[in-house]
Design goal:
Belongs to the pseudomonas-type ThrB family. One of its GO terms (biological process) is threonine biosynthetic process. GO terms for molecular function: homoserine kinase activity. Pfam families: APH (PF01636). By secondary structure, the chain is α+β, with helices and mostly antiparallel strands. The chain folds into two domains: 120 residues, 2-Layer Sandwich (Phosphorylase Kinase, domain 1); 205 residues, Alpha-Beta Complex (Aminoglycoside 3'-phosphotransferase, Chain: A, domain 2), CATH 3.90.1200.10. The chain has ten helices and twelve strands. The strands form three sheets. Strands 1, 2, 3, 5, 6 and 7 form a six-stranded antiparallel beta sheet that branches. A four-stranded mixed beta sheet has the order 4-11-10-8. It has a two-stranded antiparallel sheet with strand order 9-12. A hairpin with a 4-residue loop joins strand 6 and strand 7. Helix 4 packs across helix 7 and helix 8 packs antiparallel against helix 10.
């Protein structure tokens, strides 16, 4: 067993201990020692709250599971810095280390990996979470629209690069249909049928829409509310995509039609919604679920892996319903063309 496998075979608490030690070493590069370190999130990446002796607070992110390159992270930094200069958008401030670099690369002996880390200023307030108010959703819709409006003038430097979100899994390794798939043949075939429709609708959207940088992970756990203001963070998944794709991600995490209306009305108060059909949006929503299912097969997070059986069963149910909706939509189109 290699170091990588040995590390992820450890309990989550043991992994956090190792990464906390790594975080302390990283902070020396920022001139910070003797600080209080608290792991506040360990799912896809490891995120630490850093409280210095002088009571300054930062957040340090170590990309332990991410396949993001240094160029990808540089693009994230450049966009966040750009958004800091954009009226109406509130984000954290990227922090450079003593070498005047925003990205720290280090060898993590326990996993045998070269890991990348970034640090941001701390955002006061509370995460919106999975129970946002309708007022908050209206504000979030406004903020998403401002992100999209400003993105049209944003340009990356030659140091930065981002993936384009035209494919089904947005450039991540395929655990659903590739060689590493462990799906039963019937389930695999059903998901493949749905994915073909998703790709078709996505291609159609790209043909008639302008792509630009998008956040790609807008949900309540990446949004903070403080003193009636909305702050966006965790730009680690950003890439080149469509406004409709960003909106679909945000809608995916909502539970009621009233919530959806509040978010979309907030968006429309700033700019017109991008053009998309009802069935195309359903395809984008299902795509989000397939991406999360793929993540559950990929991740080394023990807690998330335990979610797989129930999540797969629910996904099969939603895929089956989607295929019926596609059939009904196509029949409706044919009937309209004949009339």
């Amino acid at each position: 067993m290699g170091k990588d496998a040995e590390f992820f075979a450890l309990s989550q608490d043991e992994q956090i201990v190792s990464l906390t030690q790594a975080a302390a070493a990283i902070l020396h590069g920022y001139g910070i020692s003797g600080s209080e370190l608290e792991c506040i999130n360990y799912e896809f990446n490891a995120t630490f709250k850093v409280t210095t002796d002088s009571a300054q607070i930062y957040v340090l992110r170590i990309n332990i599971n991410s396949t993001r390159t240094a160029q990808n992270i540089m693009a994230e930094i450049e966009w966040v810095q750009y958004l800091q200069r954009t009226d109406g958008i509130h984000v954290a401030t990227p922090i450079a280390n003593h070498a005047d670099q925003f990205i720290t690369s280090f060898n993590h002996g326990e996993s045998g990996r070269v890991l990348l880390a970034v640090m941001y200023s701390w955002l006061e307030g509370s995460e919106v979470g999975d129970e946002p108010s309708l007022i908050q959703l209206h504000q979030i819709g406004q903020t998403i629209a401002l992100l999209h409006e400003s993105a049209k003038d944003f340009q990356l430097t030659s140091r930065a690069k981002l993936p384009e979100f035209k494919d089904l899994l947005w450039g991540t390794q395929d655990f659903l249909f590739g060689e590493r798939s462990v799906l039963e043949s019937d389930d695999r075939e059903l998901l493949l049928q749905a994915s073909n429709y998703i790709c078709r609708y996505t291609d159609e959207l790209y043909e008639k829409s302008q792509s630009h940088i998008i956040h790609a992970d807008l949900h309540g756990w990446n949004i903070i509310s403080h003193e009636s203001e909305i702050f966006i963070f965790d730009f680690d998944d950003c890439g080149i995509g469509l406004a409709a794709q960003d909106i679909a991600v945000a809608l995916y995490y909502l539970d009621t039609p009233e919530q959806e209306v509040a978010l979309l009305n907030g968006y429309k108060s700033v700019m017109a919604l991008p053009e998309y059909s009802d069935i195309a949006m359903k395809a984008l929503l299902l795509q989000r679920r397939l991406m999360l299912l793929n993540y559950l097969y990929e991740t080394n997070n023990h807690e998330h892996r335990q979610m797989l059986p129930a999540y797969l069963a629910k996904t099969i149910e939603r895929v089956s319903r989607f295929l019926v909706e596609v059939s009904e939509s196509n029949n409706g189109t044919i009937q309209n063309q004949r009339s």
